[in-house]
Every structure is written in C-alpha cells, then in structure tokens.
Write a structure and sequence with these properties.
heterodimer, A: 295 residues, alpha+beta, 2 domains, four-stranded antiparallel beta sheet, 8% strand, B: 228 residues, six-stranded mixed beta sheet, 10 strands
Amino acid sequence: MSFNTLTYYWREAFASIFRNSWLSIASVGTVAVSLLILGFFSLLVVNANNFTRDLESGLEIRAFLKDGQSKDSIKKIKSEIDKISGISMAEFIPKEQALEEMKKSFGNRKEVLEGLQNDNPLPDGFRVRVSQADQIPVLAGKLSAIAGVDQVVYGHGLVERLVTATKWVRLAGVAILVFLCIAAIFLISTTTRMSVFARRKEIGIMILLGATNWFVRFPYILEGMILGFVGAVFAASAVYVGYISLSAYLEQSLPFVQPITDQETILTVLGGIMGMGLLIGAIGSSFSIRKFLKI
Amino acid sequence: MINFYNVTKIYPNGVKGLNDVSLTIQKGEFVFLVGPSGAGKTSLIKILFREELPTRGQVLFYGKNISRLKGREIPYLRRKIGMVFQDFRLLPQKTVFENVAFAMEVTGASKKNIRYRVPEVLEWVGLKDKAKVLPSQLSGGEQQRVSIARAIVNSPMVIIADEPTGNLDPETSWELMKLFGEINKTGTTVIMVTHAREIVDSMKRRVIALYEGRINRDEEGGVYCNEL
C-alpha cells in the first residue's frame, strides 16, 4: 500500500464525513450515548464486584448477649464459643466499643449518635470470624444455642443478595450493551450506506478500472472508524469526568461506600470504550459496503 | 491471446446468452463484434471481463483460465483490459485530468507517475487543453476521448469498446475510429461491439457476427452484414 493510496483513503473518508455532516453527527451521538452507558455500566459492575469481595472478606457473625451478664458468664460463653469447630476467632465487644465503631462508620455524621453515650442501647456481644463463609448459617445456629446469647446476626443473606444483584446488574448491563451496540452499528451502517449509495456509480467505475475490493471498501471503513472513535472520545471524556465527580461525591456523603478510584481500572474501562468505538464503526461500515462489491 | 472453448452462458431465467461459442483472438488483432441485440455480444464481453461466469466451457485470457480466478485476482485481470462504453461512464464531479488519473490511483500508482503519464495520454487523444474541464462541459466525442484516455492510461493488453460510437454523429465516430486504429497499431488488441455498418464495412477488419448466441460468421476483412 503506497503512501499515495493512504492519503487517498483519508481524503475520501473525510470528504464523505463532511458531505453527510448531519448524519455523521447523529452517528457520533449514538455511538457516544451507547458507549457512555457502556462505560458507566462497566464501572458499576466493577464496583459491585469489588464491594461484594470486600463484604465477603469481612464476613462475620455478631452474637449479642442478653443484658446484664456478669464477667464470669461472659468468660464462660467465650470458652463455649471457642469450643465450636470452624470458628477462627472470637472477640468480645463491649457495648461502649460497639458504639464507638458505629460512630466511626457514620463518619462526619456521627453527631446523630451524640447523647447515646449515657444511655447506650447497644448490647454486649462477640464478633466471631469463621474460616469458611458457607458455614456461617450452621455456626450461627450453634452460637444461638449457647445460654446467655440473645441474638445472632450475620450478613450472609445480604452477601447472597448482593451477589445475585451483581449478577443481574451484569446481565442487564450486557443486554443493554448488546442492544446499544447494535443500534450504534445500525446507525453507522446507515451513515456509510448513504455515502456508499451517493457514490455507487463511482464504485462501479472503480471496480471497472480494476480497483481491489479493499481499495473500494477501505475509505468507508475508515469513515465508520473515525465516526466511532470520535463518539468514543466524547463518551470516554464524559465517563471520566462524571465518574470522578460522582465517586468524590459518594465518598463524601456515603462513607461506607468505597468507589474504585485507582487510575488503572478507570483507564482500562476508558480504553475499552475507545476500542469499542473503533470496532462498532468498522463493523457498521463493512455491513453497508458489502452488497455493493458483488460484481 | 484470448480463447473461448465451447462457451455456453445460460441465465437464471433460462435465456441463452451464448451457445457453444469457440473463438480465438490473437494479440494485436482488431475485431468487430456485430449482431442484433440479444445475440450474445454483451454476454461475451461480460464473461471476458469476469463480470459473469460461463455456464459451460472455458475462457483463457493470455493462458489464464478466467473461471478459475480467485476473487482477489479479478481486479488484476481487469487492469489488463481497458473498457470503453457507449455512455462514457465518467465521473461528473471530477475534471478530465482527475478522471484519467483515477484509473491510475485505483492501481496504487504514485503521484509522480500520474503527473507524468496522464498529460501524455491526454495529448495523445487530443485533449491536452481540456485537462481542467469537467466532463459536462465537453461534447460527446470529447467525453468519449476522455474515456478512451482512461482506458489506455494503464497500458492494457486489450481494449474492449461496447458501442463506443452509439451516441455520436458519423463524423465524430470516424475520428474516434482513427484513434482506436492507432491504439491497435501499438499492438493493443481491440474488440469492438458496434452497430455502425459503414465503419465496419470500410475498416476491412475481422468481423465476428453473433446470432442467437452462436457465431454466425467470422471472417477477416469482413463486412457488417453480407446476406442482406
């Protein structure tokens, strides 16, 4: 492929983008919107995965004690808990410490807990860690059988629900993505089809003069890729700015939510958006040129 | 050299374009293809240009079997054949120069070669001064000269002209015929489909007359029609 041919490809591609400028803008817009949603969905899924993993690793059982236990009976309960196999650690949490921890999790909104200092409604309890997460329901049952234990709480149901929710988010995400990609491909293919159609005579003459199929096809594929890429740049910028400000806002207002902020993950998602833009553009335009090359 | 061996072309609707046609055209020949419409002239050209495949039989173009060409080889066959049509098929938004240069661009020729070769060919067809003009500003004869320039710019082995004078007055037709004669003198094979009786009769070239898909007559120095 000579340099001359390369400049020909670019010249032709840009010429037809500007010839059908409104349709080009519409394609760029569709690609941008589709990829914008794609970007946010991917970040949502990545975050949900991360959140689930965090929760699972921090999985624990809280065994709350009946009020007014003596130190002796607390010791007795502790030794009984230690006897149960499958429990890796049991730590006594007095009600004062429980309140402190709660305050911490409220972050800068801990004032709402002011005043509970003197009339602490929280019970004493044990924080129990297990070696295997799926043993939690069984062990929880054993813990609640111990005399002096009032209530046993574990986050197992929550985690399960979260895993299910993540799965659905991912599934719905994929479905929406596929749909949007098809729409974007369709629009790009319409745009390039217009330019192909406007120049079908020229294409016929090119074939007559012995142009290879690639020579005929490439300017249109390039056109599609340029449109897809420009859309992707818009989408990626919007995703980046939107996500950075959203995660900053979430960290401020919801301290227990920890959005992913490491550059590597975000850049991977942005890179994926760019790649999808090029791919969508190339696929869309190759669809539209195909039937004109059958001579 | 072009060889047709027992070539039959049947279209999907059952119409027979060619019926068991065998012929040989040597390098450097000037051949008129004559016959009424539907006789198979267009089928013959389309098969040679690999726009259509023969239903039966073999076609060799300089020893190469046209039916066995792979899709990606077809453009290279077409570059060896220069086509001239009745309706010129020029690109209206491109200038004369650009129209001729386009044939070279398509083959990936360098700018330098294009700048050298296109004026040369335009001078040869007598349109040196009209290089920057659009086809719509030219007469029919001049437009056909542009399309001839485009057909020969890549120095093809064969020129196929499909009724090149069909839309032109007799005087212009004669001038174009002289041009085709000169192309032929350089050793390029010329195959011309035509209905121009006077031209065929006075050029005294090989005439292949087709009728209902068969070769009715094939003679050197022939005339358009000798029975009537």
